[in-house]
């Protein structure tokens, strides 16, 4: 990806949010080891 780090991070966070919403079935999700800032 030819994006700046901040832009790439924002893009990844948005995609992750969309995926979480699509996969949400009301059950507690396992902890994300890549979520080092607790933005879940």
Descriptive overview:
Residues 21-30 have a biased composition (Basic and acidic residues). Pfam families: DUF6760. This is DUF6760 domain-containing protein. Residues 2-30 form the DUF6760 domain. Residues 21-40 are annotated as: Disordered. With 40 residues, this protein is mostly helical. The protein has 1 helix and no strands. The chain has one helix at 5-23. It is elongated and about 35 Å long.
Mean pLDDT: 79
**Rounded radius of gyration (Å):** 12 Å
Indicate the proportion of strand residues: under 5%
Q: How many individual helices?
A: 1
The biggest beta sheet reads: none
How many beta-strand elements?
Answer: 0
Q: Helix amount, in percent?
A: 40-55%
Summarize the structure.
Helices cover 48% and strands 0% of the residues. It has 40 residues and is mainly α. The mean pLDDT is 79.
Topology summary:
Layout: H1 5-23
Domain DUF6760: 2-30
Region (Disordered): 21-40
Biased composition (Basic and acidic residues): 21-30
Keywords:
mainly alpha; DUF6760; DUF6760 domain-containing protein; 40 residues
